[in-house]
Amino acid sequence: MIGFILVTGFYFTLRTGFFQITHLRLWIRCTLLAIFQERTVRDKSDASSISQFQALTTALAGTIGTGNIVGVATAIVSGGPGAVFWMWFSALFGMMTKFAENVLGNHYRYRSPSGNWSGGPMIYIERGLGCKWLAVMFAFFCLMASFGIGCMTQSNSIAGALSSTFGVSPAAVGILVALFGGLVILGGLKRIASVAERLVPFMALSYIFGGLVLIFLNRSMVPSVLRTIFQEAFRWPSIGGGAAGILASHAVRYGVARGVFSNEAGLGCSVMVNSASNVKEPVRQGMWGIFEVFLDTLVVCTITALAILTTNAQHSGLEGAALSVLAFSSVFGSFGGVFIALSITCFAFSTLLGWSYYGELSLRYLFGEKPIPIYRLCFVLLAGIGCVAKLELVWNLSDTFNGLMALPNLIGILALSGEVAALTKSYLKKEALLASCK
Q1: Domain containing 248 — which CATH number?
Q2: How far apart are CA 251 and CA 255, in angstroms?
Q3: pLDDT digits (tens, 9 = 90+) for 289-329
């Protein structure tokens, strides 16, 4: 599945003429720089939609999570420093997978009888391909994944972080997670988006700032770390030994895997919230998908990787969150552990909020509006239970449903790749015409 996701991203990169590189200035202007425009952040002209900034932060709420801290540490321990290069490599092509998903999501979305936007992989698979059974498959797998990777595993990460750092009992954490999660989730998309637009920028900027301070203090190590990353990413041609080949293959495997499952390119879930944006141009919404992968993997994941490697924490024998705690503690002392614990808590809680909406939309597609209140209540209760449960089986099922989600989505976007290319070409012609008029 990881290979399938990577090949899909490479295909869309070729089909659009390396859009993420050749039109770098365009998508930066239409995303990062557009955040400072009033309409992008606040738009009340359409009460049934959310602003571009709210769509971005809600999508990032489901994307930026514990994988940015724990997943990167796991990749380095399992695949060595070279895994970081392959994480970047997967992000380069993942940008165009998410671009294609968002373009199709915006193009095929429609207004439901309640007046709200309905969009996502199940919509473009059904309306674009006319393949209802494949759309139902995606919605079912996404619904199941929302209870696992989007709910119980996230709340369990919160309980683990707060219990180990502050000594709070998992049961108490479970009550708090269920309480605060319920206050947000029971309010639907508008409330989730409202919380996400405040929480996500705060948590992302705080983590980025803390990580950059650590890297700056260890800046003398950065050149040698970058050199090691590139050397170990391609060890097999330079050494030629069997062990070196195995080491390099591990770097590819874990680097690509952590990159893919951190930014979620190919899974299709973030398309659902992006389809509720006030953007009317599909390609413009597609560029927000590029920015999501850029921020998640090339910025946040890279900061975690450099923090670990510049402090040599990877040689400690620790894994996962403990490795990131060691890296930050080596510079900030006991505050480093507190910083990572709070970061994991914010990241996991935001992911929980984002996934609650993905599961809700999938349920609505399958069974209509009536079961939604029951789903929200079950989701909140399971979030509380996840804090005290042992989740080995849930983790395994979550990985499985993540992979199963990707399959119908990738089939859908590949089958509709001609429309993505045509819409992109038409948009670029309009942009060129406007530029020539100026």
Answers
A1: 1.20.1740.10
A2: 6
A3: 898 888 888 888 899 899 999 999 888 877 767 788 888 88
